[in-house]
Design goal:
The complex is a heterodimer of chains A (229) and B (81). With 229 residues, chain A is α/β, with parallel strands linked by helices. Chain A is globular. With 81 residues, chain B is α+β, with helices and mostly antiparallel strands.
């Protein structure tokens, strides 16, 4: 399996993503600079978290127009799986690979804490090793994570089962109290039409090592390896 | 030519920053403030001298990058540099 991690100026979760991928793949992913127009052969493309372009203008807006993104979009349209984490999710929405937008958290605060997520579906390369309805724990660390889309788009996402994860209570109940940032429908992550592009605000790459208090994120990477090797 | 571009949130889009500013104004004693919405202002200088072509270029910039039209409107004024 070959993976590419795109690095934008200001990305800071690229190395954690590479560590998580390497642990699952048994080989190192390629780190690809945003300014390159050539993308190596990839079974998976990962857009990592961070503050690309300092979040100037809008989070992910300028990164979405980096030279490399033209190729990422082209590959995604041809079916290469793409995982966008946090800032990577923002880049995916700005690049048009996913609908909607990530806005300033309704609390106006940068939130850095563990949340519970309900796995809404597991029939994708990303979530096959989770159970549908399973509650997992992952950290979030963001100020612009409030997912918003118009009513028609939300209806489409719901009816096509494209919600990947929802913020929830420990027991899986999807409540307002469990929503850290005001996202519509407690949406923490969504898929594109084919289920091959996933954008999510929480950080699976930060919970792949028991020494760091948990491994709920590891299943995403092992799901990918199982699906794509 | 120089474009002065204002980017504002569409009506109805949640603006917690505007709300926070409203609260701060109230705290300062400006009790009559009934609403605040925050937007962005950009000045863009283009080499184009023809207003029609400059207008078209500015609009393309707004649509492609400067505004996210899911939640933002844009307006601009053009003047000779």
């Amino acid at each position: 399996m070959k993976a590419s991690v795109i690095v934008f100026p200001g990305s800071n979760c690229d190395r954690d993503a590479a560590v998580a991928l390497e642990a699952a793949m048994g080989s190192t992913p390629k780190m690809v600079w945003h300014g390159d127009s050539e993308l190596p052969d990839s079974d998976l493309i990962l857009l990592p978290g961070g503050f690309s372009y300092g979040d100037y203008l809008r989070s992910g807006a300028m990164a979405a127009h980096s030279p490399i993104m033209r190729e990422v979009v082209r590959r995604a349209n041809f079916g290469t799986p793409v995982l966008g984490i946090c800032n990577g999710f923002q880049v995916l929405t700005e690049a048009g690979l996913l609908p909607g937008i990530l806005m300033r958290n309704s609390t106006l605060r940068f939130i850095c804490k563990d949340v519970r997520l309900r796995v809404e579906r597991n029939n994708t390369p990303f979530a096959a090793q989770y159970e549908e309805g399973q509650v997992v724990r992952l950290p979030i660390a963001h100020k612009d994570g409030c997912y918003f889309a118009d009513a028609a788009t939300l209806y489409l996402l719901e009816s096509e089962n494209r919600i990947a994860f929802r913020y929830c209570e420990d027991d899986g109940a999807v409540t307002g109290a469990a929503n850290p940032n005001g996202s519509s429908g407690n949406i923490a992550g969504i898929y594109n039409e084919t289920g091959k592009v996933l954008g999510m605000m929480p950080h699976p790459e930060r919970l792949v090592d028991p020494a760091l208090s948990g491994t709920d994120g590891a299943k995403m990477f092992s799901s990918l390896v199982e699906a794509l090797h | 030519m120089k474009a002065r571009i204002t980017i504002t949130l569409k009506p109805g889009v949640l603006d917690p920053q505007g709300k926070a500013i409203e609260g701060a104004l109230h705290a300062l004693g400006f009790g009559g403030v009934e609403g605040v919405r925050q937007g962005k202002f950009l000045e863009v200088e283009v080499a184009e001298d023809d207003p029609k072509r400059a207008r078209a270029e500015i609009e393309r910039m707004c649509e492609q990058l400067l505004a996210n039209t899911i939640i933002e409107n844009y307006a601009y004024e053009l003047e000779a540099a």
